[in-house]
Amino acid sequence: MKERTYLFTYLSALIIGILLLIFHSSDHLLNGVIIAMGALIGIPSLIMLISYLLPKKDENGVTRSKPWYGIIASAAALGVGIWMIASPGFFMNVSIYTLGAILIIAGIAGIFFIAMAARPAPVQFLWLIVPIISIAAGLVIVILGPKTIAGSAALITGVVLVIYSVNGFTSIYREGRTLTAQVIEHPKEIDAN
Predict the structure, then answer these.
(1) What is the secondary structure of 11-40 as a DSSP string?
(2) Is the pLDDT confidence value at 104 over 90?
(3) Coil, helix or strand for 124?
(4) Is the pTM of this model over 0.85?
(5) How far apart are the first and last CA of the chain?
(6) Tens-digit pLDDT profile for residues 89-101
(7) How far apart, in whole angstroms, are the C-alpha atoms of residue 176 and residue 180?
(8) Closest Cα to residue 96, out of 144, 132, 27?
């Protein structure tokens, strides 16, 4: 099950990375992404707000009210979603800094997980190349800022996502081959769970 989650994550990163590489020169790419994010925030929030405002009766016919904080949270999220759809330019700077921060965090997490997986053996430098590229790309985006890098942010993020996904697919393939070799060599010692 865990392998499926990783496979879905790497496949999603590959698709998003390729789309960013294809459409990186589009003037309205980031505006479209922000509008899509606004819709993805606004629509579920609207559904949640309606469900909070229309109380349901339980099996005894008693009307149960929902907590007030759910109404406030849903209304606030709906407001942010509508705001993102109405004025995506305002969120452009925030989204570029967010892309940079996500790349930095992903690189740091990658280094951490590689170090944890390699324990007690030392980590080879080749394993650290992808996380280091991710951190460097994130730092470039954050340091140069939205005015300088607005057009290149999608290109940089697309390249890093494609590298990340290829590295992930390689890891899944390698782990599968290692487990298969262990089962062939010691079939009674390997637990199927």
Answers:
(1) HHHHHHHHHHHHHTT-TTHHHHHHHHHHHH
(2) yes
(3) coil
(4) no
(5) 11
(6) 888 878 778 888 9
(7) 6
(8) 144
